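User: Second chain of the day. Same drill as before.
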Amino acid sequence: MTLYLLPGVGCDHRLFGRLELAGLDVRYLEWPPFPKGCTLVELAQAMRPQVDADRPHILGGVSMGGMVAQELALLTKPQKVILISTWKGPQEFTPFVRMARTLGLSVLITGFTMRATWPLKRILGQRDRATDRLLFDMARQQTATKIRHGVQAVLRWSGSRWTGPVVRIHGSADHVIPLRFPADHVVPGGAHIMVLTRAAEISHWVRAAVMEQS
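Assistant: Same format as last time:
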């Protein structure tokens, strides 16, 4: 069984660097380019060649990666999808996110605003300096333009049509995607970046989800 993991927007495979998944066959998917006006469905289609759909596999993703994983699942037919700190569709959006979609606030994401407001981004969760540097370096390399296009794709998303097994892992203190829906495993005090800051617990639940029979 191969586990394919998709990072969040503005991140790459390093987001999973603290997970303890020794003994599992884990592959980290890389984001394709995000053209202006792209959709999550189109991103899933672009990532399809990275997955060997002829072999048993599981898809997992964090934040936007979990949303794309649900679209990718329609193409590769995994045994299950593991969702970490993510949504299933716009019905779970917060009022602020709905307002941002209506007003088009994503246009405010630029290289300047990303650098200028980075010290204020505690909404992601409290972290040490090493974690903060890692997050900023990933965001800088992904570029503000790519992040903006990714966020816009999320805001245009009509929601998941995947009807297969899903395992949801979510933090009780996620301020980006507040826990207002059922989750299979709730991490007490877990923030949006808990895959980095609570890696041992996330590793435990991911491993359990992989080993559990659907």
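The first strand starts at residue 2 and ends at 6.

User: Great, on to the next one.
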